[in-house]
Amino acid sequence: MKIRIIAVLVALVIDGTTIMAQEKIKQTAGRDQLGAFAPKFAELNDDVLFGEVWSRTDLLGLRDRSLVTITSLISQGITDSSLTYHLQTARQNGITRVEIAEILTHIGFYAGWPKAWAAFRLATDVWAEETPEADARSAFQREMIFPVGEPNTAYARYFTGNSYLAPISREQVPVSNVTFEPGCRNNWHIHRAKSGGGQMLIGVAGRGWYQEEGKPAVAIFPGTVIHIPAGVKHWHGAAADSWFAHLAFEVPGEETSNEWLEPVTDDEYGKLE
Known about the structure:
- The protein is of the alpha+beta class.
- It has 2 domains: 5-131, Up-down Bundle (AhpD-like); 150-270, Jelly Rolls (Sandwich).
- It has helices spanning 29-34, 39-54, 62-75, 81-92, 97-111, 113-126, 132-141, 266-270; strands at residues 5-6, 9-14, 17-22, 26-27, 150-151, 159-160, 163-169, 175-180, 185-186, 189-192, 195-196, 199-206, 208-212, 218-220, 225-228, 234-238, 244-250, 253-254, 257-260.
- The strands form 7 sheets. The protein has a 6-stranded antiparallel sheet, with no helix packed on it.
- A hairpin with a 5-residue loop joins strand 13 and strand 14 (218-220).
- 28% of the residues are buried.
């Protein structure tokens, strides 16, 4: 079964308030599979069910719609490929392995134990690769409007611990959301520029640290703004007991570059409170 859903989040800022607007979900499964045999059914499936109902995220988010849908299917005893698809969608919409186990257990008491058993057989395959770390990442994702992103493999050698990178914009001013697992931090580094340059950080979620050489570390919380001039040696990362994410803005300049230096030692990091 080939099913494609595309959902795009757009951030709008009105009077200082950030509002997430969601474009319509694009679904093609109906036309792909039944377009020639039942064109009207395909149209209703793709354009109405998904294009209109599922897209009304201003009234009910995708995560909640997934929860309602899988509960409805299991209650009816539908545990075929359609339930598998909606379990996969639920995972994409942020429902974790721990949460789906609790959800199906709860459903079992109301919809029937055998139905829950059947759903568990499908769910264990859908969440087969999920780990406690991934559960924590999914939970942290729900704390912020920006995506966690993919593992930051390109810069992993400059980080202690695991980090994730999600490009937000590459036009006008480059902006990325950088997410750090607890205890993760980048190396000491310097933003070089002939003129201009530097970086600005804005805390998005969790708790983190920023430190310039020779100065005390500064805690970063959601909404904290950090201005980093070019030529200043510094590092930033998560607190030891918290996931952390910040937006990183690259300040335009002439002949800009990034000079990576030594890691922040465990002794240096361990002194932070």
